[in-house]
Design brief:
single chain; 532 residues; Cobalt-precorrin-4 Transmethylase, domain 1; Rossmann fold; five-stranded mixed sheet; 18 helices; binds S-adenosyl-L-homocysteine
């Protein structure tokens, strides 16, 4: 066996049943640093959005109608990534728990055989969490002293001399024992076979009046519970059009769901909304829409990149295509000796500066004796993470505030260096005309969206636009927007509305140009009938 240290390490991670809040802390930590994420169909967009944005995202579980990667190919793929990427973190992300009908064991065996190191990160299984979100405890004193998790779909379809033989259920399920079992029965993957399963259980003596619930898309904003009895199971599935993913839970505990269904139907439950904003701004409105029940697909339209190495301002500009955008004159960190004060105006600036400083072979000792200024508390805190305390932070956290403060505290001889992004305005230079500016990072329109995000956008109910530039960027990136995708948009203000109209969107516009007003409008639209 080869030394496994030469390989990447594979983490078999349970993503939980859908609600990203149910991902474990361990799972999240690994996903945030993963180099590759190999994920299944059941993993929700909310969990995928927590993955390292730079990770290679590999979808091995296309929708049933599309080609699905075979289990044997997935096993090989994991080994291949591990071998080809020494030192890499390879996340194998599965719905629920990886070892509960997740074929995680098969993947682990393959990794062992290839000498690849791995770790299992258990997940919250749908078998227990989905009933819990419907207010059904799988065990309850006096009602059920055991619960049993059963697959309702035994194996994959087989292909025999070119003919597909559909998966059969009932070959090895011991219905006699199951029918006698007094505990709660939870069936995964069983919706298509439930008619058969219910009939067999009744034939073997299980009470036709046994309460039963189907819970569809549990823990997501699309969760739905449908109650029935063993006797009416098949008919209910057809009448209510219960579709996968869903679990079936049988037994007396189901009755408790009538009193314990704690999850409220929220105004935006069941709506998938795309929120397009600059990465940092998005979270405010996203959090509010999520709290109102929507599934939010956040799509930042811009990204920041380190300018490596940093360069003098004016010589390189990331976003414009002006003719001066030709020569980048890199700075030498040695030149820092020519400055007395370093001023930072953003956390991005701090991160990019120190990343590049370290990459150049220097370290913070190069800053010995210099005064450090920050535009505000957040930037100040970021500097502290790099072991730097600030000497100057203005009361009012603006460029103007910092300019006024520095003008007051420094003397004419002080040599000031501003470390900023390419889009920083000239406010500080107006106050400090002798200062020098280095560009340490640049802001660019986002180049591409991962597949899962494109797919989520294509199936969204509407897009939320907070500026005309968001409309422009969105329309240029999502140019291959699926034909069936919704063209409904919620816009903040008339300017945004005009841009959205120009790009062929139907528009609902907030009365005022505030986030409050926009959120209110969205709720009104969905609660007062979609023609409000
Ligand atoms: N490893 C997973 C189960 C994989 S089998 C786990 O531990 O949860 C896939 C089946 O899980 C689906 O067919 C469905 O029965 C169930 N399932 C997974 N997520 C679900 C969800 N959010 N709501 C309802 N059922 C779900």
């Amino acid at each position: 066996m080869e030394n496994s240290n030469h390989f990447g390490k594979v983490y078999l991670i349970g993503a939980g049943p859908g609600d990203p809040g149910l991902l474990t802390v361990r799972g999240k930590t690994i996903l945030e640093k993963a180099d590759v994420v190999v994920y299944d169909r059941l993993v929700s967009p909310g969990v995928l959005s927590l993955c390292n944005p730079k990770a290679k995202m590999v979808d091995v579980g296309k929708m049933p109608t599309h080609h699905k990667v075979k289990q044997s190919e997935i096993n090989k793929l994991l080994v291949k990534f591990a071998i080809e990427m020494p030192g890499a973190t390879i996340a194998r992300l599965k719905g629920g728990d990886p070892f509960v009908f997740g074929r995680g064991g098969e993947e682990a065996l393959e990794l062992v055989a290839a000498g690849v190191e791995f770790e299992v990160v258990p997940g919250v299984t749908s078998a227990i969490a989905v009933p819990a979100y419907a207010g059904i405890p799988v065990s309850h004193r006096g009602i059920a002293t055991s619960f049993h998790i059963i697959t309702g779909h035994e194996r994959e379809d087989k292909v025999d001399s070119g003919n597909v033989i559909p998966a059969q259920v009932g070959i090895s399920l011991d219905f006699e024992t199951l029918a006698r079992c007094p505990g709660t029965l939870v069936f995964l993957m069983g919706i298509g076979n439930m008619n058969f399963i219910a009939r067999r259980l009744m034939e073997c003596g299980k009470d036709p009046n046994t309460p039963l619930a189907f819970i569809e898309k549990g823990t997501t904003p699309f969760q739905r519970t449908v109650m029935a009895t063993l006797d009416t199971a098949g008919k209910t599935i057809a009448r209510e059009n219960v579709t996968a993913p869903a679990i079936t839970i049988m037994g007396g505990v189901v009755e408790l769901g009538k009193s314990l269904a704690w999850r409220k139907n929220l105004p935006l439950s069941g709506k998938r909304l795309v929120v397009t904003r600059a990465a940092k701004q998005a979270s405010g409105i996203s959090a509010r829409l999520t709290a109102l029940g929507a599934e939010v697909i956040e799509t930042p339209m811009i990204e920041t990149r380190d300018v490596f190495p940093c360069c003098h301002a004016g010589l390189r500009s990331g976003i414009s295509n002006s003719s001066e955008n030709k020569v980048a004159e890199p700075v030498e960190f040695e030149d820092l000796k020519n400055f007395d004060i370093l001023a930072f105006t953003s956390t991005n600036g701090v991160e990019s500066f120190f990343t590049q400083l370290l990459a150049s072979g220097n370290d913070i000792r190069i800053l010995a004796g210099k005064k450090i200024a920050s535009v505000g508390k957040i930037t100040e805190k970021k500097l502290l993470e790099y072991g730097i305390r600030c000497d100057y932070v203005p009361e009012d956290h603006t460029g103007e505030g910092l300019g006024l403060l520095l003008r007051e505290v420094v003397d004419d001889e002080s040599r000031i260096l501003l470390l900023q992004g390419n889009l920083a305005d000239d406010t500080l230079l107006k106050f400090l005309p002798k200062a020098t500016r280095w560009i340490v990072y640049e802001t660019l329109p986002i180049a591409e969206l991962p597949d899962w995000k494109r797919e989520a956008i294509a199936s969204a109910d509407a897009v939320v636009f907070a500026s005309s530039s968001a409309v422009e960027n969105f329309s240029s990136i999502v140019s291959t927007h699926s034909e069936n995708a919704s063209r409904l948009s919620f816009c903040i203000g008339r300017m945004t509305e005009a841009s959205a109209k120009k790009h062929g969107f139907e528009t609902i516009t907030s009365d005022e140009t505030t986030m409050d007003s926009l959120v209110k409008k969205i709720v009104e639209y969905y609660t007062m009938g979609e023609n409000a």
